[in-house]
């Protein structure tokens, strides 16, 4: 039985994938991303899956991908932004080292750019992100053992994250 060195949670555009990849390089461990696992499993992008089949089938595949990755992966694991909404995922995360990579709605919007890659925000990305932060903010903070701001460049954020893990004795 193994466990990820760190599980990254946070809003879309907080940088879980980008910063997580850099953090894994710094720590010399592997990187895994549950959005990518779902994409490999179903042969299409998350955006296509949601557009073609709807959100519910995606969330079901995501729940399975998270459970599998928590069991198998021993490096840095990035979750999709909405994975934490699932109650069984919330329970599983309680046994792990979870870091909330934080940002604000305006920064997330600027990073995400057009909504094409995130159909769940397609109607009105600005309003959608504001609402998402309102609803999920407390959840991200509650599930995390550590919150680290992702401001600056991805490399700066990865360094900040590595130092925070070291300071709290949570690095591998
Ligand atoms: N300091 C920063 N931290 C993270 N990402 C940044 C930063 N500055 C710019 N970016 C850019 O923001 C974009 C979004 O980042 P990323 O896809 O890693 O977010 P995410 O948290 O994985 O989102 P999702 O939940 O949708 O998977 C990337 O194109 C990345 O290059
Ligand atoms: O925040 C969300 O609900 C999402 C974030 C992305 O990582 C993807 O998992 C998908 O676009 C949904
Ligand atoms: Mg991502």
Automatic annotation (TrEMBL):
Substrate binds at residues 35, 59, 81, 136. InterPro entries: P-loop_NTPase, Shikimate/glucono_kinase, Shikimate_kinase/TSH1, Shikimate_kinase_CS. Mg(2+) binds at residue 17. It is an enzyme of class 2 (transferase). One of its GO terms (cellular component) is cytosol. Pathway: Metabolic intermediate biosynthesis; chorismate biosynthesis; chorismate from D-erythrose 4-phosphate and phosphoenolpyruvate: step 5/7. Binds 1 Mg(2+) ion per subunit. One of its GO terms (biological process) is amino acid biosynthetic process. It is found in: Cytoplasm. It holds the Pfam family SKI. PROSITE patterns: SHIKIMATE_KINASE. Keywords: Amino-acid biosynthesis, Aromatic amino acid biosynthesis, ATP-binding, Cytoplasm, Kinase, Magnesium, Metal-binding, Nucleotide-binding, Transferase. HAMAP family: Shikimate_kinase. Catalyzes the specific phosphorylation of the 3-hydroxyl group of shikimic acid using ATP as a cosubstrate. PANTHER family: SHIKIMATE KINASE, SHIKIMATE KINASE 1, CHLOROPLASTIC. Monomer. Belongs to the shikimate kinase family. This is Shikimate kinase. It comes from Streptomyces inusitatus. The lineage of its organism: Bacteria, Bacillati, Actinomycetota, Actinomycetes, Kitasatosporales.
